[in-house]
Design a protein that fits this description.
By secondary structure, the chain is an alpha/beta fold. It is 38% helix and 22% strand. It folds into 3 domains: 3-69 and 213-223, ATPase, nucleotide binding domain (Nucleotidyltransferase, domain 5); 75-208, 3-Layer(aba) Sandwich (Rossmann fold), CATH 3.40.50; 232-463, no CATH class. The strands form 4 sheets. It has a 6-stranded mixed sheet with strand order 14-12-11-17-18-19, with helices on both faces. The chain has a 5-stranded mixed sheet with strand order 3-2-1-4-10, sandwiched between helices.
Length: 472
């Protein structure tokens, strides 16, 4: 037997999954509270021991070890751009696509105030963009000098005007700032090129962040930490949609990943307008896109989730709004945010998790999906963002989907509503839950064995149907 051990160092739990590579089957998974405040290897080896006890896996059978991490807040990134929403948005997309949590986005010139805000945000990586190739170079050069003079001690990925890249890197390196150059994230106006930046960010993550988060000790056993966990999920989302040689995919796919700290939405589709007569407003969308909502988590961010649900109560489905209203829900959320390892034990606690997940899915999809907006230039409707109305599959991954009492409920909350027709959310997709909670694991495995990973992932998908339809 040849077994792949697939590990996620999460903010709340360290999770391990085992896959039989010869029989292409999922064997089992286990988890233990993450010990990010001391030695993360402690939580890792507890989880591995539990896995061995539950499955009978022996150490000598493990031939492949791969790991991802979102521990201690995951990969925190600041994105510095140039003109308004254009270059800054391009940098933002590159950061999110690489699995980062963007903690600061700065446009145009850095000043004393914005540098102070960046220092307080304490990013793990800075993505420095600005200027199309052959265009403005003063801003990115000045921003490099500001960063070099600041107290920010983070690697800088330079992805701006190529004509000044060498000079920018020289300024930063002379100040002792670890610096990496790549192609411009926006080489021409309204033209995105984020893939080179994503790859460099991943390399920087492995080289710098793993050690900074105390994962280097665990890496002696694992071998290496391959990528941030959200990048593994995004990779698996794209593979699920496209398929691979000898194994078909599901077609255009959306994945809703609800965790303790964030709710992430991943979409793998072009997102072009269903109605070809509707023009696109803004930057073109990437095929594989991720958005992360740091205020929508079931544990670390439980309080902010409740607050966000209250702000949305005018348009959020009434059943969700009422379930999360009142002092009882607020008190429970406060408890969960300070006791992040808490699991639901009673019917009421299960219902609370379900209702919070439903609200999180509704709000996260509202933010991820495209919108029909009025465009003054054409005096009519235009599409901003992705049209998801015709996606073929929506998948839920996370503990609330794998172990919750009504996993279909959050998925239905993410679908199109006739009462909110401008939000281009999925209309009639097939709904699935990741019953083994292995989306991240299969994303890791896909870096080595994509076809095996896809087949194992598809077998983990269980249809999620409500007893009676609750959505148009």
């Amino acid at each position: 037997m040849s077994i792949a051990l697939l590990i996620d160092f999460g903010s709340t739990y360290t999770k391990v999954s085992a896959v039989d590579l010869e029989q292409e089957r999922f064997i089992g998974r286990a988890q233990s509270p993450s010990t990010v405040d001391s030695d993360v290897s402690q939580g890792l080896f507890r989880a591995i021991q539990l896995l061995k006890e539950q499955t009978g896996v022996k150490e000598h059978q493990i031939t492949l070890r791969l790991a991802s991490s979102s521990a201690a807040g995951g990969l925190r990134m600041a994105a510095v751009g140039f003109i308004g929403r254009l270059t800054a948005e391009a940098a933002n997309r590159a950061a999110l696509g690489a699995g980062a949590k963007v903690v600061a986005v700065t446009e145009r010139h850095l000043n004393r105030k914005s540098v102070l805000e960046m220092e307080q945000a304490n990013p793990d990586i800075i993505l420095l963009a600005g200027g199309v190739d052959g265009g403005n170079y003063d801003v990115i050069l000045q921003n490099a000098r500001q960063i070099a003079a600041s107290r920010v001690n983070a690697p800088v990925v330079v992805a701006g005007n190529r004509d000044v890249t060498a000079q920018v890197c020289d300024v930063l390196r002379k100040a002792g700032q670890p610096t990496y150059a790549c192609d411009n994230v926006m080489p021409a106006l309204n033209k995105l090129n984020v893939e080179p930046a994503r790859k460099v960010i991943q390399e920087v993550f492995i080289k710098h962040i793993v050690k900074a988060k105390g994962l280097d000790q665990a890496a002696r056993y694992v071998g290496s930490v391959v990528m941030p966990t959200p990048m593994a999920v995004l990779k698996m989302t794209e593979l699920l949609a496209k398929g691979t040689e000898g194994e078909p995919g599901l077609g255009d796919t959306v994945v809703i990943d609800i965790g303790g700290a964030t709710t992430d939405v991943h979409s793998a589709c072009t997102g072009d307008p269903t109605d070809p007569s509707i023009p696109i407003s803004g930057l073109p969308e990437p095929f594989a896109k991720r958005t992360v909502e740091g205020d929508l988590g079931l544990r670390v961010s439980a309080t902010s989730l409740i607050e966000a649900a209250h702000r949305y109560r005018v348009i959020i489905p009434p059943a969700i709004a009422s379930a999360l209203d009142g002092d009882e829900a607020t008190v429970r959320a406060q408890y969960l945010s300070s006791h992040t390892n808490t699991l639901p034990n009673t019917v009421k606690e299960l219902e609370m998790d379900r209702d919070m997940a439903t609200a999180a899915a509704w709000m996260a999809m509202e933010r991820h999906a495209g919108l029909l907006v009025y465009d003054d230039a054409i005096a009519g409707a235009a599409q901003a963002g992705k049209d998801l109305t015709e996606v073929k599959a929506v998948v839920g991954t996370g503990g609330v989907f794998a172990f919750g009492d009504a996993p279909h409920t959050p998925l239905y909350a993410g679908l199109y509503e006739t009462a909110n027709p401008s939000s281009l959310r999925p209309k009639h997709p097939e709904l699935y839950v990741d019953r083994h909670y292995i989306m991240y694991a299969c994303g890791l495995l896909a870096t080595v064995h994509p076809a095996i990973a896809l087949r194992v992932m598809k077998r983990s998908l269980a249809p999620a149907r409500a007893p009676t339809p609750v959505r148009d």
